[in-house]
Amino acid sequence: MECRYREKNYCIYSNRNCNPKNISCIKYHKTKTTAAVTYTANTSKISAKIKANILFPSVYAKTVRCKKKTTVYIYGGTLTAPKNQLLDYKIIVNDILDKSKVYPLYVVYNTKTQKYYMGEQVLQYYIKKNYHPNIIFKYANESECSDPFSSHSIDDLSVMSVLKMYGYTVGKSSGLSQIQRQEILAFVIDHKLMKGYEIINLLQFNIATRKRQKKFQEAVSDWKMDVAFVTKYMTR
């Protein structure tokens, strides 16, 4: 089974029934891994390669300017649609925090359903790039891919959390100011990606699990400020 979540030297993954409360841990041994595969119009396979921390298709069928509330569905495993329905697209998006900043995101477009999809490995790359994309991220459902994220929960501290998708980070190394963090939180609430109480529960969970660790003191301080912000934002 794929090691989706890692904590130090351990893999953490849910059972096949996607029960988030039934978590198993196994010792992680470094092995050679391959990236996800996307498909072009001629159905030939293009192996996405991780080289110098870059992950994107070598060719793509079309470049599209992102429209308001463009939705991209995150999937695990492989897409279940026929290969001849899938095209590699590049979409140009604006940044949430810097309205003048634009950058490309590489996605898979389903010509039948007219939906955009992004593999989890590609998303993780963009998260590491500290992007704050002005698009709507949602999780693909069971009928759309071989390994859907139906086990996702607000207690998930992994890189796949909803807030992480939009570049929300705290602490000394984040580079995000209080105003920037709260702008991302407002975006997530306004677009109904998470409810206010879900964000508060997640941040309070982070505080409770990290408050006694010295290296997380600044992060805990940031989370407390953001809990207060979300509470006030919900009662506007």
Task: Name the descriptors.
3 domains; alpha/beta; three-stranded antiparallel sheet; disordered N terminus; 236 residues
Q: What would you say about this model in short?
A:
With 236 residues, the protein is an alpha/beta fold. The protein has helices spanning 120-128, 162-165, 178-190, 196-210, 217-234; strands spanning 5-7, 10-14, 23-27, 37-39, 45-47, 62-65, 71-75, 86-94, 102-110, 115-119, 136-139. The chain is elongated.
Outline the structure in words.
This protein has 236 residues and is α/β, with parallel strands linked by helices. It has 3 domains: 1-30, no CATH class; 34-151, no CATH class; 168-236, no CATH class. Helices cover 25% and strands 23% of the residues. The chain is built from 5 helices and 11 strands; from the N terminus they run ββββββββββαβαααα. The chain has helices at residues 120-128, 162-165, 178-190, 196-210, 217-234, and strands at 5-7, 10-14, 23-27, 37-39, 45-47, 62-65, 71-75, 86-94, 102-110, 115-119, 136-139. It has a 6-stranded mixed β-sheet. β2 (10-14) and β3 form a beta hairpin. α3 packs across α5 (217-234) and α4 (196-210) runs antiparallel to α5. The radius of gyration is 18 Å and the shape is elongated. Residues 1-53 and 153-157 have low confidence and may be disordered.
